[in-house]
Amino acid sequence: MLNKSEYFEPIDPDEKNDEFIAIESKSFFKDVCERFVKNKRAMIALVIFLIIALMAIFGPMISPYSYDGMDTAIMNQRPSTAHWFGTDRFGRDLFTRVLYGARISLMVGIVTAVINTIIGVIYGGIAGYVGGRVDMWMMRLTDILYSIPELLYIILIMLIFGSNVRSIIIGVCVAGWISMARMVRSQIITLKEQEFALAAFVLGANSRRILFKHLIVNSLGTIIVTVTLMIPQAIFMEAFLSFVGVGISAPMASLGTLAQDARTYLEIFPYQMLFPVAAICVTIFSLNFIGEGLNSALNPKGKR
Q1: Would you state the torsion angle of the CA atoms of residues 119, 121, 122, 128, taken in this order, to the nearest 10 degrees?
Q2: pLDDT in 10s for each residue of the chain, 304 residues
Q3: Percentages (nearest 5) of helix, strand, coil residues in the chain
Q4: How many CB atoms lie within 10 A of CB 163?
């Protein structure tokens, strides 16, 4: 019989871990944050957006001028130390009005995105999870709503409720949730066939718990990215409506109404158009870059 001691010898305890490679345990949230922070373009966009948001919230409060205060002695003044963005045809400080307009535009974008997300997630989740005839009829309803131009909804609602922020939010939300619902539905259809959903069903979880506690939670990455892209879409829609004259009415001002007011004097006072348009562009671009960064952080394997 062979002596095992000739072939196997005990290893010194100090040598057991010489080649041991330890990997730090990370939560999903921490891993996503680290990948997002490494994306320089997304971080720069996040900083710019936070600066814009903070200035929009607190800027009009600390400004020495009111957004609707008129002074005929300083009409159409060019940018100066007293009025950083100049004044308009009524002698109103454009810097204060741009900050106030950015507040209105951001509020419209964020509120509509939240409402569309809630409706779209619930509607699409139910359609995808139940399936069958329920799914077919629910999706045909979305096709009908989607086939009608969104501008028509908004104009009709404004005729009923007037030209104000509430009308724009309602008009954008009438069909704005459809893209979210379709996306969530496709995610739920894929996820409900996975093993974890079957395991939850076998363990006795009811349909509501499976849908909201398992399927939708596992779709949060895609939902978050979609939300960040819905905000700039809503901001652009509000700016477009205000620019064509069917948006917010005076004396309230959004970035779109400021651009529309400056259109008449574009050749004489181009700065009155420059600043609100620049604010719209910077806000939309920063939100798009944030959404792109979140997409790369939440779905690193999908990045080419």
Answers
A1: 130
A2: 555 555 556 656 655 555 555 555 666 677 778 888 888 888 999 999 999 899 888 877 777 877 777 777 777 778 888 778 888 877 788 888 888 888 888 888 889 989 999 999 999 889 888 888 888 999 898 888 888 887 787 788 877 877 778 888 888 888 888 888 998 898 888 888 888 777 877 777 787 888 888 888 888 878 888 888 888 888 888 877 777 766 676 667 778 788 877 777 777 788 888 888 888 889 888 988 888 888 888 776 654 4
A3: 70, 0, 30
A4: 18
Three-class secondary structure of residue 93 per DSSP? strand
Ramachandran bin of 76, using left for φ above 0, alpha for ψ from -120 to 50, beta for the remaining angles: left
131 in the Ramachandran plot: left (φ > 0), alpha (ψ -120 to 50) or beta? left
Cβ(253)–Cβ(124) below 8 Å = no
Cα torsion 57, 58, 59, 64: sign:
positive
Q: How far apart are CA 108 and CA 106, in angstroms?
A: 5
Nearest to 127 by CA among 145, 142, 146, 115: 142
What's CA 32's distance to the chain center, in Å?
18
